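Hallway conversation turned thread

IA: we were arguing at lunch whether anyone had actually written out ABC transporter permease end to end. Turns out nobody had. So, for the record, here is the sequence (235 residues) and right after it the structure tokens. Reply here if something looks off.
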Amino acid sequence: MQDFTTAFFAAFDLVLTLDPDLMQIVGLSLLVSGAAVALSCLIGFPLGAALGAGRFPGRLPLLVLVNAAMGLPPVVVGLTLYLLLSRAGPLGPLGLLYTPAAMILAQAVLVTPIVAALTAQIVADLSEEYRDLFATMGMSRTAQAATLMWDGRFALTTAVLAGAGRALAEVGAVIIVGGNIDHVTRVMTTAIALETSRGALELALALGLILLALSLGINAALMGMRATARRLADG
């Protein structure tokens, strides 16, 4: 028990003193996850809007595929990207394997279906409310989708935050394509796994505390955005 107590105090000390190694890992984690979420939004928002407001052949199978992709096993995604990015793979000449770029790509593959599926649901729900209005105005599908996304912008923020939570918690795919290289591709989740296996509980606990704080912050922001959206809808 004494060892665990000492480890906890040492972990708090690392956080409070802004230990350089700790901050480097946290900074890279935020950079990778932030870039992955941004890339996912660039793809997921238009795709989700098209699925939510569009009516085109193959829409339903594509919607089913997007929803199913929300449950993609991270290690399978990591393995697939590893094969693509390895020297013998088709993308090998790009030299992305074991770089932050590969980790961003892995997280984006996992987060994009979440953003797209949530966006599609939000847009589809709003589309039902605005159907008669759009019919009288004769708006195109593209204009309708843009209008619905603007009207549901607060609700769409929940998709972004949900994607951010998924990205920050990812470990399986990023450790495969990133390699968990110190000061190069080591992020919070992979560092926690490594340091725990080595028995270095101080750093693992410090990173765990920061990751937990970020998770709580994201969930609090989600609840706040939902409450704001409800107030605006009622008002």
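OS: looked through it. The mean pLDDT is 87.
IA: good, adding that to the notes. The first helix runs from residue 2 to 16.
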